[in-house]
Amino acid sequence: MRDVPVTCNFLTGARAAGMKRATIMLFKGIDMRIAVVKAARDLDALVWYVEHSDVAGLHVEGETFDEFCHNVAVAVADLLEGESDGAEIPIEIIAHASLRARVAA
Hints:
Blueprint: E1 19-25, E2 35-42, E3 47-53, E4 61-62, H1 65-79, E5 90-96
Parallel strand pairs: 2-5
Antiparallel strand pairs: 1-5, 2-3, 3-4
């Protein structure tokens, strides 16, 4: 696989209600296609993996969320190779997290 520049931006805090959102930009110019990837965490294997995606054949995982983002970017670039002229396609990675906070009495 080739090296692809990756940028992950996370939406966190109370407003995000425990959700993380990452956008990865790969190339320049494609006709506004946005690839959507639903990520999940396997608590037994301790990896992030693709639970669902509209990119056919996308099956990657990573031990950390950053590693997962990188692996998604590289795999999407490979899977969509030849579908554009070196264009950029945004990828929306959606991951959910649930937390509990103990509140002092």
